[in-house]
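Entry 14. Structure prediction run on the chain below.
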Amino acid sequence: MADHATSSLPGDRGYLSEQGWRSWALTMDHKRIGVMYIWTTLGFFVVAGILALLLRLKLLVPGPALFSDHTYNVLFTMHGAMIIFLFIIPAIPSALGNFFIPLLIGCRDVAFPRLNLFSYWIFVAGILVTVGTLVAPMDTGWTFYTPYSTRTSAAVTSLSFGLFLIGMSSILTGLNFIVTIHTMRAPGMSWYRMPLFIWAMYATSVIQVLSTPVIGITFLLLAAERVFGIGIFDPAKGGDPLLFQHFFWFYSHPVVYVMILPAMGIVSEVVPVFARKPIFGYKAIAYSALAIAFIGFLVWGHHMFVSGMSTISGVIFSFLTFFVAVPTGIKIFNWIATLYKGSISFDSPMLYALSFIFLFIIGGLTGLFLGSLATDVHVHDTYFLVAHFHYTMMGGTVMGLFAGLHYWFPKMTGRMFNETWAKNAWWLVVAGFNITFFPMFILGMQGMPRRYAEYPAKYQPLNVVATVGSWFLALGVIIMFANFVRSLRNGEPAPDNPWRGLTLEWQTSSPPPEENFHEIPTVTDWPYGYGNRNEASRDH
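Output returned:
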């Protein structure tokens, strides 16, 4: 893949060598900033997960139980807002993207290191403002729909400002990545020699830059509505509450691909390494990422089929919804083609990548029901949508993140994790996930509405199954994180290239030195030549 590979020195902790909180808080090293994003986002993943467990406990019984319906609404809002805005959106782009984009393209750092640090602290400031809304807890649901969000006593105005800051951080990060990918690739790294994770992050960054200003302006309008009563969303003053939904989903559907495209990029890296085969359809996978980014801006209306839009508009949005599945299908077929007749190693990163493919296929196929005008009327705002959303977001994005964390953990930390623990955790996570969310498809088809704290008794058996499944899922996540934490101190020292990868991050030490490479590498081949006769000579 490249010349000038480096090796670890005994006792060398690379970018982790310098200690002290100042060395982290004021760092401009993209790797340290990436690690800070990892700890921050995973922290909110844990908090949001605990809230989800509380919600499932209440849903064990159909009537009043455990806490009030208002508390349920607050916990539901906090779970959704934290998992979307504070975990899924920044977890891979800002965390793993920050750490690995410069390593994968063979440069010292991102284009604007100071802006990178500024982006993180803006993100933290947004978190502090958002968490401050617990003084008057949000009960609107994570979509903050008007007119209720303009009238509730909850701290919507301060929340709007917090999300505005988080959005600003996302925009600055996306701009930084675009400039870095364009201008700082190693000598010899043409566009068609870039790793597919970089293609995915490039498409993601474009979405961040173009779509995030819309949600920022939307929340500013919402705050102005509450403070000044300007009437943008108030019909009595000539406004339209549905306008908020159009603004919100014009951002929120493209941002679905901010969540999923980086996970797809991780899968594109993991599958050829553990199948020991060249990636099938490299250019098709690369261009499909850009196609998803473009078409993703055109399909927001399928969230509003029952809001009263015209039949013609519904038909157009339905067609575009089906059309966006084409580039997604290209990726899936190419991953499966890569696996075909491969020499597959079922290590934990590969297990999570395969889980991504399987679960995301289920999420995608069930999306056909929601993209069809006739069936969407029946399953809209039911538990069918909850199941679909979690199969795409957790079955997709989170499984992709777990694949990336296991794949790159040795490189980030210089330690190997316990593979037995990792596989045991995988079994519990995948089994618990399916036991939790698959019954929700059935509940939705039977007509159980989502976001309700109480429900008819006939839905209780499947809710009990879903709640028990959530305990297995939580246990699997606990074991996984315990494995990571234990391995940080007691894991076996990691070799520079434990998976025999050909991309540039594996050609430097584990963990990488502060400057990434002792000499900037020169790229001489594409990064997916697995199984070729020359592969052995390129493994270091």
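The radius of gyration is 23 Å.
Filed with the rest of this week's runs.
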